[in-house]
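Section 5: illustrative case.
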């Protein structure tokens, strides 16, 4: 990277140790952006996006951090602090195939706490893909967290809806394996690109699961109900050519707009962009930075 970053580690309330990096400009302000990676991602992927944001942050005096969640990579081993062990730690199964989505709250809270201890008073959650689900879920369950100034939801596409015709067969297989299978075993699911436990697969495809916060195609009485309850200012950024979307992006945007939280909401489409904003990283970063500055100036 053109700009120097510092490698960091954080510890969650349940004693998991996560790695990441942080960029702090020489003349820093009290604003820090926290990147939350997507399904099976990690803190060091999306390098071109990180470089674009760090370049923008250097001009604005903002800091930028990217930290693993317990769902990083497909399958991994995560260090857990354990005073009873001679080494002081043990290892637990982690990665996208093993993670429990609701526990992502602990990962985000640990990262926010870390940034707060460094003196940052305005923290922006920037969740991409499944990271957007996690940022939304965190905001819903921590509506009074004043450490968080705003939430950016980038490519908030529903995994469940994107599965299309495979959803019902997968739910049937999940039901069978919940009864007759082993909940701790990894299974290869035909419609997933990585092996996952029954609970992880269920979280991804089950209507109404904790992870299913972007149910923009469901009936009006439940559509985006939890999203609409977010208490932090929210910016939705959609990719115009998102290959994971099951319907036109304009329709998805209209659904978000019609169920937007009561205050501090805006939405945008970056045209000709894929799910990961490949080739549009600078435009993506610039749009988000403008949104953050508007929110900060509005809040004072």
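Designed sequence:
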């Amino acid at each position: 990277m053109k700009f120097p970053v510092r490698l960091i580690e954080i510890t969650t309330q349940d004693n998991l140790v996560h790695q990441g990096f942080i960029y702090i400009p020489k003349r820093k302000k009290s604003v820090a952006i926290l990147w939350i990676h997507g399904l099976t991602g990690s803190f060091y992927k999306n390098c071109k996006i990180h470089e674009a944001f760090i370049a923008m942050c250097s001009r604005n005096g903002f800091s930028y951090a990217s930290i693993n969640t317990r769902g990083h990579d497909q399958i991994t081993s995560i260090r857990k602090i354990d005073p009873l062990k001679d080494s002081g730690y043990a290892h637990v199964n982690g990665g996208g195939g093993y993670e429990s989505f609701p526990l992502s709250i602990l990962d985000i809270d640990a990262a926010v706490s870390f940034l707060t201890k460094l003196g940052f008073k305005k923290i922006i959650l920037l969740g991409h893909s499944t990271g957007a689900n996690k940022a939304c879920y965190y905001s819903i369950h921590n509506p009074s967290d004043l450490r968080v100034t705003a939430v950016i939801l980038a490519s908030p596409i529903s995994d469940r809806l994107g599965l299309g015709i495979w959803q019902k067969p997968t739910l049937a297989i999940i039901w069978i394996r919940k009864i007759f299978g082993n909940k701790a075993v990894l299974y290869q699911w035909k419609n997933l690109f990585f092996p996952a436990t029954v609970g992880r697969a269920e979280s991804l495809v089950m209507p109404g699961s904790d992870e299913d916060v972007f149910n923009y195609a469901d009936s009006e009485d439940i559509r985006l109900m939890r999203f609409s309850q977010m208490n932090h200012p929210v910016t939705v950024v959609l990719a115009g050519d998102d290959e994971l979307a099951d319907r036109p992006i304009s329709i998805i945007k209209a659904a978000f707009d019609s169920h937007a939280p009561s205050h501090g909401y805006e939405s945008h489409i970056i045209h000709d962009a894929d799910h990961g904003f490949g080739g549009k990283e600078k435009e993506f970063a610039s749009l988000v930075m403008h949104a953050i500055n508007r929110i900060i100036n509005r809040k004072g």
